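Z., the sequence and structure:
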Amino acid sequence: MNDKVSVQVVTFGAMNFAMQQNYVPLVRSVTIKNNSDEEIKDIMLKISFEPEFAKPFTHRIEVLPPHTEIEVSPVNIIVSTEFLFSLTERIVAQISVQLLCGEEELVNAGDNIDLLAYDEWSGCYIMPELIAAFVTPNHPAISGILKIATDYLRKWGKDPSITGYQSRNADVVKLQMAAVYAALQSKNIVYNNPPASFEKAGQRVRLPYSVIEQKQGTCIDLAVTYASCLEAAGLFPLIMIKKGHAYCGCRLEEETFADCVIDDFSAIDKRTVSGNEDILLVECTDFTAGEKIDFDRAVKHGKNNLSDSENFICAVDVRRARAEGLRPIPQKIDSNSICGYDGTVDSVSDYQAAAPKKLNRSGTGVIGYEESSLSRIQIWERKLLDFSLRNSLLNFRITKNALPVLTHDLAALEDSLADGVSFSIRELPSEWTASLRDARLYEIENENDLATNIASEEFKSKRLCAVMHDEELEKTLKNIYRTTKSSIEENGSNTLFLALGFLKWYESDISEKPRYAPLIMIPVELVKSSHNKGYLLRSRQEETQINVTLIEYLRQIFELKIPSLDPLPEDEHGTDIPLVFNTVRNCILDKKRWNVVNTACLGQFSFGQFVMWSDLRNRADELMQNKVVAGLIDKKITVEQEENPLTVSELDERIAPDDLAIPLSADSSQMLAIAEAAKGKSFVLHGPPGTGKSQTITNLIANALYHGKSVLFVAEKMAALNVVQHRLENIGLAPFCLELHSNKASKSSVLSQLEKSLEVGRIKHPEKYKATADRLKAMRVSMNSVIDGLHKKHESGISVYDAIEQYETCAEFKNKITIPQEVINTVNDDRIEQLSSLILSYKNSVDGVGDIVNNPLKNISLTEYSIPLREKLYSDCVNLLNLYNNAKSCIERIFGTFNINAELSEKSIKNILNLCRALLIPSAFSPSLILENNYNAVSQKLNNYYESICNENREKQEIEKVFTSGIYEYNCIQALNEWNVAQSSWILSRHSKQKKLLKEVATFCVMPNAVTKENIINWYQRLINFNKLHNDNMTCGNELRYILNELGSDFKQAIYKTDSVYNAISVYNYNEIRTILNAFKNINLAQLGNDVNCAENYILKWNDFSDIFKVNIDNEQSNNWLDRTGNTLNNISKNIDKLYAVTEYNAKREQLANEQLECICNAVESGSVNKENAVDAFRCNVYYALALKYISVEESLSTFRSNSFEQTIKEYHALIDEYSKLTVQELVAKLSSQVPVSGSAGASSSELGILKRAIKSNGRMMSIRKLFNEIPALLRRLCPCMLMSPISVAQYIDPSFPKFDLVVFDEASQLPTSEAVGTIARGENVVVVGDPNQLPPTSFFKSNRIDEENIENEDLESLLDDCLSISMPQMYLKWHYRSRHESLIAYSNMKYYDNKLYTFPSPNDRVSAVKLVHIDGYYDKGGTKQNKAEAEAVVNEIIRRLSDEQLRTKSIGVVTFNIIQQNLIEDMLADGFSKKPELEKYDSESAEPVFVKNLENVQGDERDVILFSVGYGPDKDGKVSMNFGPLNRDGGWRRLNVAISRARQEMIVYSTLTPEQIDLSRTRALGVEGLKGFLKFAGQNRNIVIPDGKVSVHNDNRVIEEIAKEIEKLGYKVNCNIGCSEYKIDIGIVDPENPDSYLLGILADGENCKNSATSKDRFVLQPDVLAGLGWKIMRVWTLDWLDDSARVIEKIKSEIENAISGKNTKQKISEQNKTQNLEFEKIDTSTQIEQTRQRKYETVDSQILGSSESFYTAAAGVEIQKLMFKIISVQAPISKKALYKSVLSAYGISRSGNRAEVILDGILGRIMHSETSDNGVIFVWQPEQKPDEYNVYRVSEQNGNRRNIDDISSKEILNAVIQVLSEQGGMQKFDLIKESAKKFGFTRTGTLIDTTVGFAVDNAIKNGKLVVSQDGKITDKT
């Protein structure tokens, strides 16, 4: 045994057959903790059992880190069903647990467990719900009871059918219960007393069939039996358990509880209230023998069991247990005794069971709706408009949040409030003695006189008298104040109203109970009074409203049409109260007993949803036109697939800096969302806690405004809207954003905002904006190219970084080998792995051979191996060895014979044998010739001589065939001459001479007539040639006589031999040749021949042998070839057993050689690389070569210099900051250009005029909605962004208002869809921002009747959930900024976000900022439901922190699980502040005061320090309920997620509850499971989150590891890959003085850097966030490390030293989004026309060109044309009339005539121009001017050259019209004409102006350039 490991085994302590059948684990969990400082590997857990009622269990754990706890769960132990089924008595079994590490036993422990009998229940302390397993409705005996029950129903005259809940009638359900009761009563069952404390220890349970058969049972037996019958009847029974007793209950309606075990007494008690029963309780002992108690009395007795809540233990909901998988246990049925059961009724003396009474349910009145047949819009309508009697607007009741007020005159009270009078509220006067509260508020008319007198006197003193006493009043006012404050904070809506007048109405003519509905609602507020600690009531100066819900209810339900009272009629002070009341009275004259009651009450009302309901009701068709709303209705949405969708990694590449206007810092996930919204897309934006939702929304709005779009930002919670509003204000956009949330919707505030917008002036555009954007783009391209180049995958699939990473794994082998470039050019990862595998195989083959250098078989290069091959090798080797000695002797003898002293090299042997073979040719040869210096020439001469002799002999033979030998003596030369002479003689002489010569030759002829006159010359010549040849041969033969004699007669053979000998002997020198030739004379040729044959035979066989077996002896050191062959043969014969290894080696070597990697083999065989390192050496050098290759081709890498790159980063950072400021100025400049220049009052009907009058009169007689309807175009220009709540949208934005380009919802997870659709339809596109893992919409604050611990169906559908359900496109914000310590978000990230949030570690992340403080106290479950101990601890901590000068700088928030605990802490804190008022003053004046909130309303809030009070825990008796209120609901885990993610710097959890006390077997709520895990996490005080018992191991990064190793050599401890999420700091250097903190962080350019999507992410945002968290960061570059690692380490060392020296220096951290005083340079609009259409009207100076007479001359034409051209060039467009008039004036002609016009028309025709016609008036344009695109109007600065209105083109007039509309907004036509004429200098209008300008306006309307609204106003379409 050893204590370094501990094991905790959690079991139930008991097990029975029912538990096993319902999958209850024998062992719930096994927790193994490593208490040591070292990790333990390969642990084996073994669990065994004695007796063997279950199979042994084993579980292997690979690694257990130090000080880490791993939970093994589930522990799947297979329990023997047969064993448990057979148990008839309880036995004790043992569980043994062993923990082994190899052979070492770490732990050996044991524990006992009770194995219960087959029919034994384990009691309430171990899964009480298991009692449901004994409820067995399917047994035949139960069927018999139901048969008897049907007889009773028939006997009572009722329908005998057992129908369960099918009738939907509670009385029918009660009848069935009574019938079953009577049937069991008829069985005469005897009651047995149960064993003592059975509810704790459990007991044997008689199953129902046994009770019925044996006719006896204890209370639990009877309850189970009755429940079995009820379940068989289709009803939902409950088993009720209290101390010492059990009984039964049943639901009257088809409903179940949220959990199968209900341990809350109130949850049962309130469902059994008389008159409102939901459950009937039945005392089952009442149906036993002899009792004679009817069913109604049994129900009464059952209800009496609840009289003492202290004795209540729990109830088990059988139906709910079935839903959770608890099945009835299989039964041992005796078919003989049971199946034959006949259902007979036993006699019960003379008692006859009576039918039960009907239920009295007069207290309930609910109007229900069947929604299944309703459309989606109708369902939304119903949710918005609550027509049930729970709605206080229809059925007002006195609650703790309502206060009846005595009044003498309602109208006077309303007038005073409208005039701003404040009233104090006092208690009931002493003279008022009646107990009015009991009389139900409104029946006070009996004492009207007294009430009136008192109220009148108090009213004069500005006091209102409440109808309650002082203590009750104080409590009620406090509740009202708190509820109102909470509603305003959370929903932004005021719910406090003073109701004046109530309608007294009845549901029907026969209804007895009156209902009261308020009529007039005055928005009021309660203000704490400073001087008397009371409260003041005053008007909020918002619009008084009629109860529109009541008006609509009366219309729909009673068809009462009340005239429109919205808005309410007014008198001189405010609302005309009497008129309203009389109007209502007139409408109800025909309704009996209905009346209007003149009374007042202060209460909480929520009727803002009516306007949204009206919105849906009246615009259903219009809603469907919006694609998102249509998708929500149809439950599907069609999204067009983008061809090339933008991804986060493409942002830098595809989005230029000036494509988006983003004034606030934005990470890549935010940027992507902004870019997608800019494309006009609708999508869901997931925003987990702290991911910068509000900042993203601010940027999204700013970018939309920059691109000229209008935005509607919607948030239901005021806090969410305020955050965005403040951010917009901080960047100077406040004047262009109109905030109109519900609680600030006063006309004065709206008008004030609009007035500020009008006064904003013109802001100058920044000059450097575009240039800075271009520079930014260039810089990020440059920076990205380095990172992209480093990580770019090349054709090999390998990046530079990959190559360096791999190189670093074996860098010590650099340059040990040189990899051929051909290999480098063809490798990839797979190829390298293949080659590495091949090298490894080679290395293994080397191992097999052993000593490669001295390997005896090294000369064999065989690569194949087989046993036959080996045997052949050995055989041939031995045979060859036998030839070796003879061959050696022969060769040595040959060398001796020729006296040659040379080594017996292969060459020398080959030479001598060649010589011998030549000498042995059987022929003579010429030694003399061989010794000739000029052998080749002499040899050639001999050959020529031989050829010539042969030719001579052949010719001689031919001659002698014709002639005798005497012919050779004949002088042929002389004869030929004579023949030639004769040929030239005259004919007779010629003939004579020729004849003579023929006759001479004929004497030598052998053949007669062979020589003729024709051929004699040829013969002469032939004989002459022969004689010459013969003579030449004789001469040559004499010269070569000596050699010819040596050659002998066989010249050819002899010369061949001589050549052969010569060629063979040439390799020797002259002396050796002479020696050899001399020695040859004495050689025994026979012996020589034998020796040669022997030697050649050996050589031949050796060559065959070496070829076959690939033997190579060239590398042998000896020159004696014979010795080398002999030695080789000897080695082979003696080491043949090594052949297998050698061939394997040869094969691998050959493979490497084929792959051009013979260098590896050479390096290994030469010893320069150890064979063990061969693979590493290859990988090192191949990856290094790849890195160098790829670096060389990437210019950004080859030219990389870290110093200049880091300087670029600094410049980039600074430039981004500068560009953000420029962006703000550019944005404000753009928006300001849309605002009309101040000064003009505007036309009376113009939007500007309307607005200015409204501002001046403070909006009197004009509501906000009406104002907006009057100025839609101007409002869009002044405030293109509006910030509103869904209610205020419906209330103030008319459906006809121009649609917004973009609607943005925040906190959409909390917004019901029904409240959002109207807003969505007011926009073109929508961005839905929220988090599905946070709070859903809840009705928590919409009712005062909610039981926090038993909330059912309170969560509503949310807009976010619905948008996700229709597959709306989704975007995700991933960077978490809120938590200043990663542990604050770590649990939430792991549990609810799959660890996908991008969180950042803090320098002290080795410890946790989440702490659990265990409080010694209890939860007062049955009483106050408070946990005072926790509350005291929380308040004490708040006081302590606020009292400390340093601690108080951190803001504080408190989160509780429920309102009760929240109120307790608020009260205790108020008491604490009262004792130390200076702390309250400090807190109230701080930027973030202390808040105390609960799970339901804390979303959206955050503080530096969060104090968390769990509240729930053990009660006084130590009993822990598994009911944690909201956490037990389906959305409970969402609430927990919100609560635990609110802290920025620290969270302290105060809890009387420990995680071990939370029993997950008793609840399946995910929220409770999450709470247990969170408490466990908080308690470990380490920042470790390990899900599912698995330890996360990060991939190794070799470069980082190598750097870390070098840093450790400097003496510092380091950690790598620091962080809990995907984002990691590569290296952290631990502070030697504070091991829980890091001194320095190092960021490399590896995977973490590559995974950053943009240059801004990696080089600006991430370092900024880390610096903000307190990190000192430096960067290390991979290329630097590759180049000179020592230089890098030196730099790191220097940074560490700097960090140590500067550790105590406080770093000033810049706060993001700090409020800025933005001042922009403005443009002087009085002197400069900026961005308007107005231009100066230029004219041509008129000079006299001639007289009127000269005009008509031909010569004037040229001058006229020049002038006309000049006028058109300057003044066009110009009317033809004005043009002609100007020309004629130059000639002194004042009026034109037909003659002049003809001339002018002709000249104009010669000038290029274009013409338009306005109502018959022709206008002349320059040819390059395009009338339809003309966009200016011209104004004369001097009255003298002002144009007539009809001389101005309609195109030009239209531009002035558009300018007017842009300045003043839409207006009526008459005003538009007037204002447009003013632009041209006309102060008055007349018929001509009206006609001319009117024509331009009408024409523009006709062409769609201007739009006329329903009220006649004209607006610009743009």
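The CA atoms of residues 915 and 1065 lie 6 Å apart. The two ends are 85 Å apart (CA to CA).

Let me know what you think.
H.
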